[in-house]
Write a structure and sequence with these properties.
The chain is mainly alpha-helical. It contains 15 helices and five strands. The chain is about 55% helix and about 5% strand. The longest helix has 30 residues. Bound molecules: tryptophanyl-5'AMP. The site of tryptophanyl-5'AMP has 24 residues, from strand 1, helix 1 and helix 8.
């Protein structure tokens, strides 16, 4: 099985990124082949500051390594370091119906949130399809918000294969049901664009402030509450062990507690959960050259596979003999 996924360096990673996607990357990195990349070309649709994009890309690499991505197992690289992807993107673009892209919810959503819709944002799913097809990926671990994009990828691959003969592997999305849509501090999906994130490596003082500001319902403290439908409980459950979770659920069902207690407990489990990763991060930041070497090595391994698949696609559609 060949696994592939990408993550944008638009801001520091949040709990949604980690529990929806990164944790899966780590679990799957020992499969036959695993490719994980930092999607800087995609990030360019929103980050329009060169220094910031460079810094974010480096931070993303350090964060992934600190969280447990192991370059001895997985090929880890920066998307733009493999230029074959933009070549394949053009091949796919020529067969992409406009209507298919107009229906993509991520595009519609971003537009609704006031982001200017340039051609890059509109054709974003085609570049994502190229990302996936370029490595013959079978499985793409993602959160729920990316599932539609993987359907688009399957559509594009299917029609290319139909027109030019079997060329691309049709990938499948892999989501973890329980964490496919991690809620943010306001109960909506956690997302950089909704300004409701809790970051994995947030300084602890700042994390505490954000946790204390998590919105809660205003029912009286005495009332018994259903834990599963409460986003504060859902966030706690991400990091609590089974007995902590059961104890907390029982407290909700009994009633008579304050949300302040839950928030304190959440800060406690979050601090413990990421403590080791924080330490590993400190060590990595002190060795930036080592991180750059890992990325350079990843890019050259990725380009090998990418070159093969691109040549296959170019031959299929008549660009090569
Ligand atoms: P991005 O950078 O927005 O998010 C990275 C990963 O985190 C997941 N995620 C979540 N999962 C659960 N709950 C949440 N609240 C939450 N927020 C984010 C996303 O589903 C994603 O898996 N287009 C992609 C990047 C990309 C890509 C690819 C992914 C580019 N090319 C090829 C897979 C394959 C994106 O914007 O993800």
């Amino acid at each position: 099985m060949r696994v592939l996924s990408g993550i944008q360096p638009t801001a520091r990673f949040h709990w949604g990124n980690y529990f929806g996607a990164i944790r899966q990357y780590i679990d799957l990195q020992t499969e036959d082949e695993a490719y994980y990349f930092i999607a800087d070309l995609h990030a360019l649709t929103t980050v329009r500051d060169a220094d910031k994009l460079r810094q974010n890309t480096f931070d993303a690499a350090v964060d992934l390594l600190a969280l447990g991505l192991n370059p001895e197992h997985a090929v880890m690289f920066v998307q733009s370091h493999v230029p074959e992807v933009t070549q394949l993107c053009w091949l796919l673009m020529t067969g992409t119906p406009m209507g298919l892209l107009e229906r993509c919810t991520a595009f519609k959503d971003k537009k609704a949130h006031g982001l200017t819709a340039d051609a890059g944002l509109f054709t974003y799913p085609v570049l994502m399809a190229a990302d996936i097809l370029l490595y013959d990926a079978d499985v793409v671990p993602v959160g729920k918000d990316q599932v539609q994009h993987i359907e688009v990828c399957r559509d594009l691959a299917g029609s290319f294969n139909h027109e030019f003969g079997e060329t691309f592997v049709l990938p499948k999305a892999k989501i973890l049901e329980s964490t496919a849509k991690v809620p943010g501090t306001d109960g909506e999906k956690m997302s950089k664009s909704y300004n409701n994130t809790l970051e994995v490596f947030e300084p602890l003082g700042q994390l505490k402030k954000k946790i204390m500001r998590i919105t809660t319902d205003s029912r009286p403290m005495e009332d018994a509450k259903e834990p599963e439908s409460d986003h504060l409980f859902q966030l706690y459950s991400l990091m609590a062990d089974d007995s902590q979770r059961e104890e907390m659920a029982a407290m909700y069902r009994r009633g008579g507690f304050g949300y302040g207690e839950v928030k304190k407990a959440l800060l406690g489990v979050a601090t413990d959960y990421f403590a080791e990763a924080r330490e590993r991060r400190e060590a990595l930041v002190a060795k930036p050259e080592q991180v750059q070497d890992i990325l350079a090595d990843g890019a050259s391994r990725a380009r090998k596979k990418a070159g093969e698949v691109l040549a296959r696609a170019e031959t299929a559609c008549g660009l090569r003999g």
